[in-house]
Amino acid sequence: MKMMLRSRFILLLLIMPFLSVSQNLPGKLVNLGPQVKEKHLEGSLFLKDEKGKDWLYTVVRGSPGYLLGYDLVNYELKVKLPLIKMDGAWDIGMSSDGWLYIAGSAGGRLARHWPGSQQIEDLGKPLISETYLFALASGKNGEIFGATYPGCRIFRYHPKDGFKDIGAGAIKAGEQYVHGLAYHEKTDKLYAGIGSRSYLVEVNPRTGERKEILPDQYRGGSGFVYDMKIINDVDGADLLLANLPDLGKTVVYNLKTETFEEDIQRSVMVKSAIKSLTDEKIYYSAGWTDLYALDLTKPQSKPQKVGVAKKALATKWLNHSELLILNAEAELLRCNIKTGESKSIPIDVPAQPIGLIAVAAGPDGQIWTGGYLTGNNAAYNPESKTITSYPGLHQPEGITIQDENIYFGTYTRAEFYVYNTTLPWSLEKGNPKKIGQIKGQDRPFGGVNVAEHRQLYFGTVPGYGLLGGALAAYDIKEGKMTPYFNVMPNSSIVSLVYANGSVLGGTSVWGGLGAVPIAKEASLFGWDPVRKIKTFELVPVPEAKAITGLINGPDGMVWGMADGVCFIFDPVSKTVRTSKKVFEVPEEVKKKPVWRDAFLVLHPSGNVYGTAGGKFFKIDPSSKEVTMIPLGIAAHSLCMDQQGRFYFRNGINLWQYEIL
């Protein structure tokens, strides 16, 4: 999910270690605590409780996520409830009998809350196989419908009947996501937005019967039919708005005539779209800031900008000319659609710690981390024991160092930024500065500095439903990024190292989520940065699915990890010298997509340390003996500071391990 690029005050916090554990360990383990905090809002709704009182409800992502309820009389935060086994909720929805339902993201659980109360009830997992809930739609007589991943399913819940899989399996065979969902009361039909190939399916919730309705020019293309909403009674017809963000447009389906109207040529925040109280116009936000009015009853009508919304999450009319808007910036705006003026209403949104996705040692001596999935970065100073917040960038998949610069490869759409650590962090002033984007790609994992050629190379995973990553070269002097496609057809490029004049890359058979792998094994390949050609490829570990860690080892060789096996590769003879199984990877795990897993670090002692599969281990370069280090927690990612101390992530926390 993308965030608004913005710059805020850089917060410096003095922290104390959360926990020190050294029992039975050949070193000192310290929990440095949460690093990245954010006011990231997800499912949001204006509603009335049983007494007719107006409320704003929203979910702030974190560990845990919180359900927040604001009294709209004085805009005070009256409800703050931790979500049970949820880090957030893509959607919340109110049933016809007055319950507010919360669709849990990671974990795939459903919860409910009676508006105005101080209780939240965990209803469990609607479908055992499903790990994510994306959207909710209120049906009739107190029922609620929900959309799931990875089984591409729709469930029904009713307090009397419990859960039911209304499609008895995938709504669209071969797909994983139902991302958007809408219910039309007049026809008793559901509309499901599918990904990671785009389909729009009409579903009868009583029989499971379904019909595909997306126009042929969009149907089956890579991407999503994302959020959806029905706008009732627009010139006597109900209109379904369905956002296709990958195409940058929104389709409009007339539920009365069962035909598609003219597309809106923007990706619209459709959940917050709202009809005028006085005419046939609808109001919606699109782009980073703007609020638009559009009359869909007039052919070729053009949207008119009427104010500022900043990605509206929920809207409510205060009167005929004023909209109350909650936006993705955690702002509550009172917008006058006639004058275009907006007034900000302060509301208390507590910042929450979020999960870490990337850890790297910066050229400034700090340990840099990146947040999942809301993005933002932070840096821990090992000497002063302080954390500095660096907000504004999207989710960083890869962090690469070059001199005093840090390069961030961010999700989505494989965007790249460079930050000069000797200058202040300011997005407005271009530090970090965007340096490129790779078309058709989504996640930049691999990165390596090729100092002798003043270049950096990056490897990527393609977009949803696609196979085939790219290798991208960035020329520092010219400031130009050049992508090379089909270097390793049908494989993603997830790890890189530079040795013996060549860029060496490790692949994963997995592409974007929703794509079925074609490649059977992960490969190691060579790239000549002068001739700009692939020089070789081989399979270092038979049947391995991903090579996720590559480093220059202590013996002049390249060390790599693939599915729990450490291999040592000679970059001169281009042969695998030896391999050693570090741990067994269960077959069930090998069936799941892997882009990022193993990290290897050469310690000043001469030993190689690594993390993979949540394990922390040491390898003796001479004997190749492996020593597992029992931390008592899962260790993910790995880097080392200038004093030889290790850092890894676990959930929201950064951990430090020091050899004694």
Overview of the structural elements:
The chain has 660 residues and is mainly beta. The chain folds into 3 domains: 1-37 and 351-403 and 637-660, no CATH class; 38-274, 6 Propeller (Neuraminidase), CATH 2.120.10.30; 438-629, 7 Propeller (Methylamine Dehydrogenase, Chain H). Strands 1-38-37-36-35 form a 5-stranded antiparallel sheet, with no helix packed on it. A hairpin with a 4-residue loop joins strand 43 (441-450) and strand 44. The longest helix has 4 residues, at 587-590. It is globular.
Mean pLDDT: 94
Please state the overall shape, judged from the principal axes of the Cα atoms.
globular
**Mind telling me the CATH superfamily name of the largest domain?**
TolB, C-terminal domain
The low-pLDDT segments are 1-23
Write down the domain tally: 3
Give the C-alpha Rg: 26 Å
Query: Could you tell me the strand content as a percent range?
Result: over 45%
Strand order of the largest sheet: 1-38-37-36-35
**CATH-level-2 architecture of the largest domain:** 6 Propeller
Number of helices: 1
CATH hierarchy, class of the largest domain: Mainly Beta
Question: What percent of the residues sit in helical stretches (DSSP H or I)?
Answer: under 10%
List descriptors.
660 residues; mainly beta; Neuraminidase; Methylamine Dehydrogenase, Chain H; 3 domains; 5-stranded antiparallel beta sheet; disordered N terminus
